[in-house]
Structure formats: C-alpha cells, structure tokens
Amino acid sequence: MQFDQYPRRRFSRRQLMQYAGLSGMGLFLGSCGASNSTSIFKPLHPQTANVRALFEPLNQGIEELIFQAKNPAPEYPVSAIEPNALLINSFDTTPVIDPHSFKLIIDGAVNNPLQLNMNDVRSLPLISMVIRHVCVEGWAAIVQWGGVRLYDLAKLVQPKAGARYVYFESADSYYESWDIASALHPQTILAYQKNGSDIPVENGAPLRLASPIKLGYKQSKWVTRVTFTNELRKRRGYWVDEGYEWFAGL
Ligand SMILES: Nc1nc2c(c(=O)[nH]1)N[C@H]1C(S)=C(S)[C@@H](COP(=O)(O)O)O[C@H]1N2
Ligand SMILES: [Mo]
Q1: Of the chain's two ends, which shows fewer C-beta atoms within 10 Å, N or C?
Q2: Which domain of life is it from (predicted)?
C-alpha cells in the first residue's frame, strides 16, 4: 500500500472513504451474510473479491492520468434544460431491457470484476448534471442526466496499472472505446435518469453514458458491459470505424 507515500495525492484517506460512498460499502458487507438478497455486488470471480478495494484509491498511475484532466466542462442551471431538443439517434432498433434482470458487467484489466444489478448501481452516489449534448449531425441539446460516476465504479473494480482504455458494449450491438482519463473524468457518468425521471428506453434505459467532454456518438446507450483494456482493439467504435474521430472531445 503505497498511498501514504504518494506526495501529490489530492485526497486524504478519510476523504476517499467518504467519496467511495459508505452506502455502497454497507450494502456490500451486508450482503455477505444474506442468503437471499436481491441487491448484492456479485464478483465474477469470488476469490478476487476484495472488500478493501472500496477504501483504496485507484493505482497511482491511473490517478495521475485522470488528474492531468483539463478544466471541468460547463454545466447549466435546471432552467436551461431543453426538454424537446434531444433527438433520438439510434443506428438500429431499440433494445428493450428488463431492468429487474439486467446486470452490468464490469471486467477486463481489473482486480475485482463485478456484475451489478440496478439496485447496486442506485446504491452508489447519484450525480446529477445539466450539460450540452452535441451530435455531429448538427444539433445540440441541454439535458439533465443523473447516474453514477464511472470513477466510482472503477474504485469498486480497481483497474490494473496498465489499463489505458475502457470499452462499452451495448444491447443493440453498438460499441465504443474511450481513453481511461476521459472515462474516469468526474463528469462522465452512467446515467439512469434524464431530466429528473427514469431514462426513457429510446434514450438508453436502463444505463447509458453521459458526459459533457465528448461528442454524442461516444455516449453509448443501453450499456451492458464495461471492459478495461491495456490496448485499443481493432474495432474501436461503431461510428469511429466508419471514419469518425476516435477521441471526439468537446
Ligand atoms: N447503443 C447506442 N448508443 C448510441 C447510439 C446508437 O445508435 N446506439 N447513437 C449515438 C449518437 S450518434 C447520439 S447523438 C446519441 C443520441 O442519444 P439520444 O438518442 O438519447 O438523443 O446516442 C449515441 N449513443
Ligand atoms: Mo450523434
């Protein structure tokens, strides 16, 4: 544990523990003795489950990548929301996912792969932001999204030191990949709320990416799997593989 020797750390251990979200922790511990819990963090490989992971920062190299981050992207007041401006943009038919049986898989180059159901996801700190969604097709919309930070999910699974990219698989077979610093940016969330209500199915229910730092096509709807990788694969993204820019930063 080298955290205490890290001279440029931004958080005290106590702050990190608060930030990690004690609700999630309590739920995790509470599940250990429960035989029939409906809401438990299920490790893909139980032998790798590590309760302490919730209290530890990400490894130093990844924290450094994240904190090289630029200024936060602008957020707007709730009064600026444009309820009808967000156009549905789906390359294929809309997949309908049963939120009760849904499980988000988080795996790859991580120490503690997990499957989370929606109760697990909702037990983590809820982040709400009003941001500008920008589609390359020439429209934009001010939208409020509510959900969980990828950063908080990363703290649960603990990416390995070599992890540099994050892949997102969707139920409509859409796929995307992000650099890890953008994926773990504090304004990058997996959203389950839009403009204060549960996300409509066309907008990506039960979980979709939302972030003010990337163009619309990076923001995968109907995300089913989040995979940390050391390298980019040949297939980088549905639109990216058609010639659109991979980084697609705003
Ligand atoms: N799974 C999936 N995610 C997707 C898309 C898609 O076709 N499938 N379209 C992308 C594009 S181009 C945009 S602009 C936004 C649109 O989000 P919305 O339909 O909620 O407005 O979703 C992005 N995420
Ligand atoms: Mo788009």
Answers
A1: N
A2: Bacteria
**Look-up: residue for tokens 């159901």?**
117
Give the single-character DSSP code of 14: H
* pLDDT above 50: residue 242: yes
Of the residues 219, 222, 240, which should be mutated to test ligand 1's pocket, given the most ligand atoms within 8 Å of the CB? 219
Q: Does residue 135's CB lie within 6 angstroms of at least one atom of ligand 1?
A: yes
Following DSSP, what letter does each residue of 120-167 receive, concatenated? HHHTSPPEEEEEEEEETTTEEEEEEEEEEEHHHHHHHH-B-TT--EEE
Instruction: State the alpha helices, DSSP H only, in 33-105.
Output: 60-67
Task: Please give the residue range of the domain that contains residue 200.
Answer: 1-250
Ligand 2 centroid – CA 216 distance (Å):
5
Measured distance CA(212)–CA(163) in Å, rounded: 23
Has residue 147 got a pLDDT over 80?
A: yes
pLDDT tens digits, residue range 114-137? 999 999 999 999 999 999 999 999
Task: List for the chain the helix, strand, coil content (%; round to 5).
Answer: 25, 25, 50
> What's the rounded mean pLDDT across residues 138-154?
97
Residue 70: the pLDDT is 66
- Is any ligand 1 atom within 6 A of the Cβ of residue 88? yes
Q: What pLDDT is recorded for position 58? A: 87
Instruction: Please give the tally of structural domains in the chain.
Output: 1
Return the CATH number at 42.
Answer: 3.90.420.10
Mean pLDDT of the chain: 83
Please give the number of the atom of ligand 1 that sits closest to the Cα of 215. Answer: 14
Pick the closest to residue 247 from 70, 89, 63, 59 (CA basis). Answer: 70
Under 8 Å between Cβ of 148 and 121: yes
